[in-house]
Amino acid sequence: MGALNSFEVTKSRMTGITVLLIDFAKGFLAVFLSRFIGDDLFIAGAIALNAAVLGHCFSPWLKFKGGRGLATAAGGAVLLAPAIFLVWSLIWVIAFLFRRNVHFGNISATFLTALLTYNSGEILNKYSFPPAESETEFIFAVITLMIIILSKHLDPLKEWLKISQKSTSRE
């Protein structure tokens, strides 16, 4: 279900942190294990991470529902493309401090990371382990990951836009 959902339902920080660590480990292990299967190729790790996040977000065991994929993506990105993890985290902190809204931070960081990857993929790829064979391969893998994550943020985005419209119409 995801760390934030688990925390919100149980009101237990310990439960939220435990789920966060398990979700993080899912992404980390997917990339880690892909290195043995895929001859340490970037594309093998990228496919494994995208599959782990897709499975987390749209679990067949939960009628294709699930979490938002952030912790799972972070776990794999730390191992595969640390620059993506750092860029996303930095943008998230700035966006969160700007609006004090977790979903605004998630959406902003995810969208802007995809945009930055599209514009600076060659540079970001240099800090991948191993780097992708081409800039296009790197950009495609990262943007696919960001699209999966953004797809799970459509409802929070709609809700946030409704609230923003109501507050601006009152002014």
How is this structure best summarized?
Helix content is 80%, strand content 0%. With 171 residues, it is mostly helical.
Folded structure, characterized:
The structure is a single chain. With 171 residues, the chain is mostly helical. The chain has one domain. It contains eight helices and no strands. It is globular.
What descriptive keywords fit this protein?
171 residues; mainly alpha; 8 helices
Count, helices: 8
Strand tally is 0
Radius of gyration: 16 Å
Helix content: over 70%
> What string, H for helix and E for strand, traces the elements in order?
HHHHHHHH
Structural class: mainly alpha
What gross morphology would you assign? Answer: globular
pLDDT averaged residue by residue: 89
Describe the main β-sheet briefly: none
Uncertain ranges: none
Strand content: under 5%
The number of domains is 1
Distance between the termini: 38 Å
Topology:
Layout lengths: L2 H8 L2 H25 L4 H16 L12 H11 L1 H18 L2 H24 L9 H17 L2 H17 L1
Helix pairs in contact: 1-2, 2-3, 2-4, 3-4, 3-7, 4-5, 5-6, 6-7
